[in-house]
What we know:
Chain A is an all-alpha fold and 231 residues long. Chain A has helices at residues 3-25, 32-39, 43-49, 53-65, 76-93, 95-105, 121-139, 149-171, 176-187, 204-230.
Amino acid sequence: MARQARAIQTRTSILLAAAEVFDERGYSTATITEIIARAGVTKGALYFHFSSKEDLALGVIAAQLELGPLPAQRTKLQELADQGLLFAHQLQYDPLTRASVGLAMDQWSENAEGGNPFHGRPFQEWADRLTELLVEARERGELLPHVDPAETAELLSGAFTGIQWTSQVLCQRRDLTRRVIAMFRHLLPSVAMPQILPTLELSEERAVALLASRDAALEAEEAEADGDSAA
Amino acid sequence: MARQARAIQTRTSILLAAAEVFDERGYSTATITEIIARAGVTKGALYFHFSSKEDLALGVIAAQLELGPLPAQRTKLQELADQGLLFAHQLQYDPLTRASVGLAMDQWSENAEGGNPFHGRPFQEWADRLTELLVEARERGELLPHVDPAETAELLSGAFTGIQWTSQVLCQRRDLTRRVIAMFRHLLPSVAMPQILPTLELSEERAVALLASRDAALEAEEAEADGDSAA
């Protein structure tokens, strides 16, 4: 493996280890020592990539936000639903996603000792992405005339936050996909033109398939990067 | 003032002071010393009513849950909306409500040091109350036939949790009533029979009026309790 590919792999292992440790311990009690042990790297390797615990947390949040767009669908509203389904499913299985949400919601009280500097940070970003999707949906005539994309995006982002939080507290998010499907079933009739509604697919199976195709796409990207750096 | 009335007043002052301190500092960093100073009571008076910090937190949660039902309306769905409007408005102005939600959401990571034992506690209670209201609404023919009261209650409770959280992080809950009205406007068309929809009142003014009438009712109750114990 070429040096660049190895560096990327080391960085990814560190980020995954950091995500697991942040997810399990919370930001304030997570230690760099434990992240180094979990990643199986040297202290030097970690500090080559990340300067501090704060830098590691920023890396985790950025890696989750970079996961990029899903495949295009017949309607923008299906793409919106797909984002929610995938996010719900990832929160159950992907440490990066879980840690990002954990970092954003950790330390409710801003005055508490060790309060973390990421409180709330990714939420505006998520709401902005949903607004963009809804504006595109409106341009294609998919939305009811009274819908305000920013207001609906804000609602979706806030409601999702609370639904995943409640599901986490009550059952470690085991029922999250079902709860998110219920959210879309309740909200979409107030948002979509009636003829769009029957075309929208919302199911646990779809969430599973979206995650599998996302993973396959990421693996293909990695293989290509490996090939490039070996060439 | 009779001894019993004075004891009730002391207990209430302690609970309000505890609510303020929990709200400002979070559970883990709040101290009984600060609560005693804030309430202006002696250490002996506090320990007469509450045995520990945990006991104080349980008292705050119980006091918030005891706030009781709102005046009956023409429809159960209006009563449901009124609960949400009042709760949104109280979260902006009532330390007991704010502290209850804070205690329930404090310490996202259960493994963090000083994790509090109230994590998530009131949420099942709130969902159960909403389920009861929706079952009554169904019995009166106010709901669309496919609505599952428990599922809709769970969604409302989860969505509300996240909406108030986001509003807290972004602007200290200053826009919360507006966000909760947007939530009901999006959700009620999937829940209510169409002829109910135009009768439902959702406005900031209604939220203000509900809080004023709740406060007047509580003051009348207190005056009666005073009269009883003086008699």
